[in-house]
Specification:
By secondary structure, this protein is an alpha/beta fold. It contains nine helices and 15 strands. β9, α7 (about 190-195) and β10 form a beta-alpha-beta unit. α1 (about 5-10) crosses α5. The protein is globular and about 55 Å long. Bound molecules: threonylcarbamoyladenylate (TXA) and magnesium ion. Threonylcarbamoyladenylate binds near residues 51, 103, 107 and 168.
Amino acid sequence: MNEIDQAAELLRRGGLVGFPTETVYGLGADARNSSAIKKIFAVKGRPSTNPLIVHVSGVAMAKLYSARWPHQARVLAQNFWPGPLTLVLPKTKEIVPEATAGLDTVALRMPDHPIAIELIRKFDGPIAAPSANRSTHVSPTTAEHVRREFGSDVELIIDGGPCRVGIESTVLDLTTTTPRILRPGDITREQIETFIGAIEMNTIVTHSSSPAPSPGQHEIHYAPRTPAFRFERAQRDRISGDDVGMLIIGDTTSPSERTISLANDPAAYAHDLYAALRQLDDLNLRAIYVQSPPETPEWAAVWDRLRRATRPLP
Ligand code: TXA
Ligand code: MG
Protein backbone atom coordinates (compact mmCIF):
# COMPACT_ATOMS: atom_id res chain seq x y z
CA MET A 1 0.00 0.00 0.00
CA ASN A 2 1.49 3.37 -0.92
CA GLU A 3 1.46 6.45 1.30
CA ILE A 4 -1.61 8.01 -0.29
CA ASP A 5 -3.63 4.77 0.07
CA GLN A 6 -2.48 4.60 3.67
CA ALA A 7 -3.53 8.23 4.23
CA ALA A 8 -6.97 7.59 2.70
CA GLU A 9 -7.38 4.58 5.00
CA LEU A 10 -6.38 6.66 8.02
CA LEU A 11 -8.97 9.30 7.10
CA ARG A 12 -11.63 6.58 6.81
CA ARG A 13 -10.77 5.47 10.34
CA GLY A 14 -11.24 9.04 11.63
CA GLY A 15 -7.52 9.89 11.79
CA LEU A 16 -5.51 12.98 10.87
CA VAL A 17 -3.18 13.33 7.88
CA GLY A 18 -0.69 16.08 7.04
CA PHE A 19 -0.63 16.66 3.27
CA PRO A 20 0.69 19.18 0.76
CA THR A 21 -1.39 21.66 -1.24
CA GLU A 22 -0.13 24.37 -3.59
CA THR A 23 -0.64 27.03 -0.89
CA VAL A 24 0.50 25.56 2.46
CA TYR A 25 0.42 22.12 4.08
CA GLY A 26 -2.96 21.06 5.47
CA LEU A 27 -3.95 18.95 8.47
CA GLY A 28 -6.80 16.87 7.10
CA ALA A 29 -9.74 14.90 8.51
CA ASP A 30 -13.07 13.61 7.20
CA ALA A 31 -15.42 16.63 7.03
CA ARG A 32 -18.38 14.27 7.72
CA ASN A 33 -16.94 12.87 10.96
CA SER A 34 -17.40 14.97 14.13
CA SER A 35 -14.89 13.14 16.28
CA ALA A 36 -12.22 13.32 13.57
CA ILE A 37 -12.80 17.07 13.20
CA LYS A 38 -12.57 17.57 16.95
CA LYS A 39 -9.09 16.03 16.82
CA ILE A 40 -7.96 18.76 14.41
CA PHE A 41 -9.08 21.47 16.83
CA ALA A 42 -7.45 19.68 19.77
CA VAL A 43 -4.09 19.10 18.06
CA LYS A 44 -3.89 22.66 16.71
CA GLY A 45 -5.18 24.32 19.88
CA ARG A 46 -7.61 26.06 17.57
CA PRO A 47 -10.67 27.85 18.98
CA SER A 48 -13.79 25.89 18.04
CA THR A 49 -15.26 29.15 16.69
CA ASN A 50 -12.83 29.17 13.74
CA PRO A 51 -14.29 27.20 10.79
CA LEU A 52 -12.20 24.94 8.52
CA ILE A 53 -11.74 24.85 4.76
CA VAL A 54 -13.14 21.74 3.10
CA HIS A 55 -11.14 20.33 0.20
CA VAL A 56 -12.91 18.70 -2.73
CA SER A 57 -11.75 16.91 -5.90
CA GLY A 58 -13.74 19.16 -8.23
CA VAL A 59 -17.06 20.84 -8.98
CA ALA A 60 -19.04 17.58 -8.81
CA MET A 61 -17.94 16.97 -5.22
CA ALA A 62 -18.35 20.66 -4.30
CA LYS A 63 -22.00 20.45 -5.41
CA LEU A 64 -22.58 17.45 -3.13
CA TYR A 65 -21.68 19.54 -0.07
CA SER A 66 -23.07 22.97 -0.98
CA ALA A 67 -26.81 23.58 -0.83
CA ARG A 68 -26.56 26.12 -3.66
CA TRP A 69 -24.16 26.45 -6.57
CA PRO A 70 -24.76 29.96 -7.90
CA HIS A 71 -23.65 31.35 -11.24
CA GLN A 72 -20.60 33.03 -9.64
CA ALA A 73 -19.42 29.73 -8.19
CA ARG A 74 -19.73 28.07 -11.59
CA VAL A 75 -17.75 30.81 -13.36
CA LEU A 76 -15.07 31.11 -10.67
CA ALA A 77 -14.54 27.36 -10.31
CA GLN A 78 -14.28 27.09 -14.09
CA ASN A 79 -11.55 29.72 -14.18
CA PHE A 80 -9.64 29.25 -10.91
CA TRP A 81 -10.02 25.58 -9.90
CA PRO A 82 -7.92 23.73 -9.19
CA GLY A 83 -6.24 26.62 -7.39
CA PRO A 84 -5.94 28.93 -4.38
CA LEU A 85 -9.53 30.23 -4.34
CA THR A 86 -11.91 29.13 -1.55
CA LEU A 87 -15.65 29.71 -2.01
CA VAL A 88 -18.00 30.12 0.98
CA LEU A 89 -21.48 28.72 0.22
CA PRO A 90 -24.48 27.34 2.13
CA LYS A 91 -23.63 23.83 3.32
CA THR A 92 -25.45 20.52 3.19
CA LYS A 93 -26.00 18.47 6.34
CA GLU A 94 -23.25 15.93 5.55
CA ILE A 95 -20.64 18.50 6.58
CA VAL A 96 -20.62 18.29 10.38
CA PRO A 97 -21.20 21.48 12.39
CA GLU A 98 -17.81 21.11 14.12
CA ALA A 99 -16.09 21.67 10.75
CA THR A 100 -17.88 24.98 10.13
CA ALA A 101 -17.95 26.25 13.72
CA GLY A 102 -21.72 25.87 13.69
CA LEU A 103 -22.18 28.13 10.66
CA ASP A 104 -24.66 27.04 8.00
CA THR A 105 -22.05 27.81 5.35
CA VAL A 106 -19.00 25.86 4.20
CA ALA A 107 -15.71 27.06 2.68
CA LEU A 108 -14.85 24.85 -0.32
CA ARG A 109 -11.76 24.61 -2.46
CA MET A 110 -10.17 22.29 -5.00
CA PRO A 111 -6.42 22.33 -4.36
CA ASP A 112 -3.93 22.42 -7.23
CA HIS A 113 -1.58 19.71 -6.03
CA PRO A 114 -1.43 16.18 -7.48
CA ILE A 115 -0.99 14.55 -4.04
CA ALA A 116 -3.93 16.46 -2.52
CA ILE A 117 -6.18 15.58 -5.46
CA GLU A 118 -5.19 11.93 -5.46
CA LEU A 119 -5.81 11.77 -1.72
CA ILE A 120 -9.32 13.29 -1.99
CA ARG A 121 -10.16 10.94 -4.89
CA LYS A 122 -8.92 7.83 -3.11
CA PHE A 123 -10.65 8.82 0.10
CA ASP A 124 -13.68 9.65 -2.05
CA GLY A 125 -14.94 12.32 0.33
CA PRO A 126 -14.49 15.92 1.50
CA ILE A 127 -11.35 16.62 3.56
CA ALA A 128 -11.53 19.43 6.09
CA ALA A 129 -8.03 20.87 6.47
CA PRO A 130 -6.75 23.98 8.12
CA SER A 131 -3.10 24.91 7.70
CA ALA A 132 -0.97 22.33 9.53
CA ASN A 133 0.39 24.58 12.28
CA ARG A 134 -0.43 25.24 15.92
CA SER A 135 -3.08 27.94 16.19
CA THR A 136 -1.78 31.52 15.53
CA HIS A 137 1.68 30.23 14.55
CA VAL A 138 3.32 30.55 11.11
CA SER A 139 1.80 28.25 8.44
CA PRO A 140 3.94 25.36 7.10
CA THR A 141 5.25 25.30 3.54
CA THR A 142 7.31 22.10 3.81
CA ALA A 143 6.68 18.65 5.32
CA GLU A 144 9.55 19.30 7.74
CA HIS A 145 7.68 22.38 9.08
CA VAL A 146 4.66 20.13 9.78
CA ARG A 147 6.78 17.49 11.52
CA ARG A 148 8.27 20.14 13.74
CA GLU A 149 4.84 21.58 14.61
CA PHE A 150 3.22 18.31 15.61
CA GLY A 151 5.84 15.61 16.09
CA SER A 152 4.12 12.31 16.81
CA ASP A 153 0.69 13.95 17.32
CA VAL A 154 0.09 13.44 13.60
CA GLU A 155 0.49 9.85 12.49
CA LEU A 156 1.15 10.42 8.80
CA ILE A 157 2.59 13.42 6.96
CA ILE A 158 2.92 13.15 3.18
CA ASP A 159 5.93 15.00 1.79
CA GLY A 160 5.16 16.77 -1.49
CA GLY A 161 8.10 19.18 -1.44
CA PRO A 162 7.88 22.95 -0.84
CA CYS A 163 4.52 24.59 -1.63
CA ARG A 164 4.32 26.52 -4.91
CA VAL A 165 2.30 29.52 -3.63
CA GLY A 166 3.45 29.74 0.00
CA ILE A 167 0.52 31.62 1.56
CA GLU A 168 -3.08 30.52 2.17
CA SER A 169 -5.86 30.66 -0.43
CA THR A 170 -8.08 33.66 -1.13
CA VAL A 171 -11.38 33.16 0.74
CA LEU A 172 -14.43 34.58 -1.07
CA ASP A 173 -17.87 34.69 0.55
CA LEU A 174 -20.57 34.04 -2.06
CA THR A 175 -23.47 34.10 0.42
CA THR A 176 -23.74 37.91 0.63
CA THR A 177 -25.52 40.07 -1.95
CA THR A 178 -22.18 41.42 -3.10
CA PRO A 179 -19.42 38.77 -2.87
CA ARG A 180 -16.73 39.64 -0.35
CA ILE A 181 -13.10 38.66 0.08
CA LEU A 182 -12.69 37.46 3.68
CA ARG A 183 -8.99 36.70 3.29
CA PRO A 184 -6.79 37.96 0.43
CA GLY A 185 -4.50 35.46 -1.30
CA ASP A 186 -2.75 34.63 -4.52
CA ILE A 187 -5.94 35.07 -6.58
CA THR A 188 -6.50 38.82 -6.45
CA ARG A 189 -9.62 40.96 -6.20
CA GLU A 190 -8.94 42.21 -9.74
CA GLN A 191 -8.75 38.67 -11.14
CA ILE A 192 -12.07 37.75 -9.50
CA GLU A 193 -13.75 40.96 -10.66
CA THR A 194 -12.79 40.18 -14.26
CA PHE A 195 -15.23 37.28 -14.10
CA ILE A 196 -18.04 38.32 -11.73
CA GLY A 197 -17.90 42.13 -11.55
CA ALA A 198 -17.43 44.33 -8.48
CA ILE A 199 -16.81 42.62 -5.12
CA GLU A 200 -15.97 43.86 -1.62
CA MET A 201 -12.95 43.41 0.57
CA ASN A 202 -12.96 42.78 4.31
CA THR A 203 -10.89 45.06 6.45
CA ILE A 204 -8.78 43.64 9.24
CA VAL A 205 -10.31 43.20 12.69
CA THR A 206 -8.05 44.90 15.19
CA HIS A 207 -9.00 43.29 18.49
CA SER A 208 -8.59 39.55 18.73
CA SER A 209 -11.32 39.38 21.36
CA SER A 210 -14.03 40.79 19.10
CA PRO A 211 -16.05 38.44 16.91
CA ALA A 212 -14.85 38.45 13.32
CA PRO A 213 -16.95 37.87 10.18
CA SER A 214 -14.33 35.31 9.25
CA PRO A 215 -12.42 34.20 12.30
CA GLY A 216 -9.06 33.97 10.52
CA GLN A 217 -9.36 37.76 10.39
CA HIS A 218 -8.13 38.16 13.94
CA GLU A 219 -5.12 40.38 14.24
CA ILE A 220 -2.61 38.03 15.82
CA HIS A 221 -2.14 35.12 13.44
CA TYR A 222 0.63 33.65 11.34
CA ALA A 223 3.07 34.99 13.94
CA PRO A 224 6.57 33.85 14.89
CA ARG A 225 7.27 33.28 18.61
CA THR A 226 9.94 36.00 18.60
CA PRO A 227 8.57 39.56 18.95
CA ALA A 228 8.26 40.81 15.36
CA PHE A 229 8.08 44.39 14.15
CA ARG A 230 7.68 45.93 10.72
CA PHE A 231 9.59 48.98 9.59
CA GLU A 232 9.82 51.39 6.67
CA ARG A 233 12.97 51.46 4.60
CA ALA A 234 13.90 54.87 6.01
CA GLN A 235 13.86 53.45 9.56
CA ARG A 236 16.47 50.79 8.80
CA ASP A 237 19.32 52.66 10.53
CA ARG A 238 17.40 52.48 13.81
CA ILE A 239 17.77 48.71 13.84
CA SER A 240 20.99 47.25 15.18
CA GLY A 241 22.39 44.57 17.44
CA ASP A 242 23.63 41.05 16.95
CA ASP A 243 20.61 39.66 18.72
CA VAL A 244 18.06 40.78 16.12
CA GLY A 245 16.99 39.38 12.77
CA MET A 246 15.89 41.19 9.65
CA LEU A 247 13.70 40.37 6.70
CA ILE A 248 14.38 42.86 3.94
CA ILE A 249 13.28 43.21 0.32
CA GLY A 250 15.31 43.15 -2.89
CA ASP A 251 18.69 43.82 -1.26
CA THR A 252 21.23 41.04 -1.46
CA THR A 253 24.22 43.24 -0.63
CA SER A 254 24.56 42.33 3.05
CA PRO A 255 23.23 38.81 3.54
CA SER A 256 23.90 36.99 6.81
CA GLU A 257 22.27 34.27 8.86
CA ARG A 258 20.20 36.97 10.56
CA THR A 259 19.44 39.10 7.49
CA ILE A 260 17.26 37.46 4.86
CA SER A 261 16.40 39.30 1.67
CA LEU A 262 13.21 38.31 -0.15
CA ALA A 263 12.40 39.14 -3.77
CA ASN A 264 10.81 42.47 -4.66
CA ASP A 265 7.92 40.66 -6.30
CA PRO A 266 4.71 39.73 -4.44
CA ALA A 267 4.43 36.12 -5.66
CA ALA A 268 8.11 35.30 -5.13
CA TYR A 269 8.02 37.05 -1.74
CA ALA A 270 4.91 35.10 -0.65
CA HIS A 271 6.55 31.85 -1.73
CA ASP A 272 9.43 32.36 0.74
CA LEU A 273 7.83 34.40 3.52
CA TYR A 274 6.83 31.70 6.03
CA ALA A 275 10.05 29.70 5.64
CA ALA A 276 12.03 32.91 6.26
CA LEU A 277 10.00 33.80 9.36
CA ARG A 278 10.51 30.28 10.71
CA GLN A 279 14.25 30.42 9.98
CA LEU A 280 14.62 33.68 11.93
CA ASP A 281 12.34 32.41 14.70
CA ASP A 282 14.60 29.37 15.15
CA LEU A 283 17.58 31.62 15.98
CA ASN A 284 15.92 32.64 19.29
CA LEU A 285 16.64 36.31 18.77
CA ARG A 286 15.44 39.28 20.81
CA ALA A 287 13.38 40.60 17.92
CA ILE A 288 12.67 40.18 14.22
CA TYR A 289 12.32 43.27 12.02
CA VAL A 290 10.41 42.98 8.76
CA GLN A 291 10.67 45.65 6.06
CA SER A 292 7.24 46.83 4.89
CA PRO A 293 6.49 46.09 1.24
CA PRO A 294 4.85 48.68 -1.06
CA GLU A 295 1.21 49.52 -0.24
CA THR A 296 -0.12 48.54 -3.66
CA PRO A 297 -2.91 46.07 -4.54
CA GLU A 298 -0.50 43.37 -5.78
CA TRP A 299 0.93 43.19 -2.25
CA ALA A 300 -2.49 42.91 -0.52
CA ALA A 301 -2.15 39.22 0.44
CA VAL A 302 1.40 39.64 1.77
CA TRP A 303 0.34 42.77 3.69
CA ASP A 304 -2.55 40.89 5.26
CA ARG A 305 -0.14 38.29 6.68
CA LEU A 306 2.50 40.83 7.75
CA ARG A 307 -0.05 42.99 9.56
CA ARG A 308 -0.92 39.97 11.69
CA ALA A 309 2.61 38.59 12.10
CA THR A 310 4.20 41.90 13.11
CA ARG A 311 3.54 45.13 14.98
CA PRO A 312 4.62 48.58 13.77
CA LEU A 313 8.02 49.70 15.02
CA PRO A 314 7.40 51.61 18.29
O1 TXA B 1 -4.74 27.67 1.45
C1 TXA B 1 -5.54 27.33 2.31
O2 TXA B 1 -6.70 27.77 2.33
C2 TXA B 1 -5.07 26.31 3.37
C3 TXA B 1 -4.81 24.98 2.66
C4 TXA B 1 -4.50 23.86 3.63
O3 TXA B 1 -5.90 24.66 1.83
N1 TXA B 1 -6.03 26.18 4.42
C5 TXA B 1 -6.24 27.17 5.34
O4 TXA B 1 -7.15 26.84 6.31
O5 TXA B 1 -5.69 28.23 5.30
P1 TXA B 1 -7.29 27.66 7.67
O6 TXA B 1 -8.17 26.82 8.54
O7 TXA B 1 -5.98 27.96 8.23
O8 TXA B 1 -8.11 28.91 7.28
C6 TXA B 1 -9.51 28.82 7.19
C7 TXA B 1 -10.13 30.19 7.15
C8 TXA B 1 -10.80 30.52 8.48
O9 TXA B 1 -9.93 31.11 9.38
C9 TXA B 1 -11.86 31.46 8.01
O10 TXA B 1 -11.28 32.74 7.87
C10 TXA B 1 -12.25 30.97 6.64
O11 TXA B 1 -11.20 30.16 6.21
N2 TXA B 1 -13.50 30.18 6.66
C11 TXA B 1 -13.65 28.84 6.71
N3 TXA B 1 -14.93 28.49 6.70
C12 TXA B 1 -15.64 29.63 6.66
C13 TXA B 1 -17.03 29.94 6.62
N4 TXA B 1 -17.97 28.99 6.64
N5 TXA B 1 -17.39 31.23 6.58
C14 TXA B 1 -16.44 32.20 6.57
N6 TXA B 1 -15.11 31.97 6.58
C15 TXA B 1 -14.71 30.71 6.63
MG1 MG C 1 -4.27 28.78 9.27
